[in-house]
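Researcher: Here's the sequence for the chain we discussed earlier.
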Amino acid sequence: MVLKAQVERLGETKWWEYLVRFIFGGLVTVVAGAIAKEFGAVVGGLFLAFPGIFPASVTLVERHEKEKKQRHGFSGVRRGRMLSAVIALGAALGSIGLLAFSGLAAWLLPHSGAWQALGAATLGWLALSVLAWMLRRHLRDRAPASVR
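Model: Thanks. This is the structure I predict for it:
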C-alpha cells in the first residue's frame, strides 16, 4: 500500500469528526492532569504520552475509506482496515522515535541550552522513526509473499 498526502481530501472530513478528535484529545489531557495531580507529574506524564487523537482519527480514516469504496460498488472493509493498520504501524514506529526524543532530552537538558537539547532530541526522534520505518520496509520486502 502506497501512502501519499492528498490535501483535497481534507474537505471530506465533516465538522463533527474534527469535534470528536478535539473532545477525545481534550479528555485524554484532562485525565492525564487528574492522574498527575493525584500521583505526581512523572506518572501523569506517562498518561499524557497516550495519543489523544489517534484512536478517533484511525476509526474515522477507516470509515472514510469504506465509504469511498462503497461509492464504487465495493465493500471497502478490507481497504479501510488495511489503511488503519498502516496508520497504526506508523504511530507505533513514531513512538519508538519518541523514546529517542525523551532519552536525548533528559540526557542533554542538564548539560546544554534548552533549544540545543530539544533540537538534538527532535533530530534523534526523526532519525530513529525513519530508521524504524526503513527497517520495517526491509523486513517486509524480505518476507515470503504469503506473509506480506
